[in-house]
Amino acid sequence: MNKLILSNMNHRDWYLEQLGITQYTVRRPASLMGEVAITLTPEIRLLTVSAESTEEKIFDDILKAIRLTRQNVLTLKPEQLIMLPEQFNAVVWFINQPLPESWPAGGSVNNRPTIKTLSLSALAKSPKDKRQLWQELCQYEHYFHTEQS
């Protein structure tokens, strides 16, 4: 039976198990590889995840419509998501990005509202998608203006 156990785990794992020592797995290994955690200041109300630039007129128009400024927005590259704190109070907007596997296909994660859209240039050309985005933004308005809560 010991041979069967040893075939599924290495000697070190087996010895630690025999000694009753629990092994832990690092949840965020990138944090040990020189990555820096991202700190979200209280004025950040919208977190955008995009590989493309947000320097398009439609983006500024959207911010103006929801009464935010660029100081209220933090844009991250998709690979930076792992550096976010576990808890924060901002809407997460994936622009032309797939949702990570750990993110549900819609709604929120840990009460974290999530929006997913096409690229900004495609969004600018699609009234239907703009309408859908506007409905979602209105649904999350209380996240943008917490002083009204």
UniProtKB/TrEMBL annotation:
Under the heading InterPro entries, the entry gives: DNA_pol_III_psi, DNA_pol_III_psi_sf
What is the protein name for this chain?
DNA polymerase III subunit psi
Tell me any Pfam family this protein matches. Answer: DNA_III_psi
Q: What does this protein do?
A: Part of the beta sliding clamp loading complex, which hydrolyzes ATP to load the beta clamp onto primed DNA to form the DNA replication pre-initiation complex. DNA polymerase III is a complex, multichain enzyme responsible for most of the replicative synthesis in bacteria. This DNA polymerase also exhibits 3' to 5' exonuclease activity.
An example molecular function term from Gene Ontology annotations: DNA-directed DNA polymerase activity
Keyword tags: DNA replication, DNA-directed DNA polymerase, Nucleotidyltransferase, Transferase
Task: List this protein's GO terms for biological process.
Answer: DNA replication
- Would I find Hydrolase among this entry's keywords? no
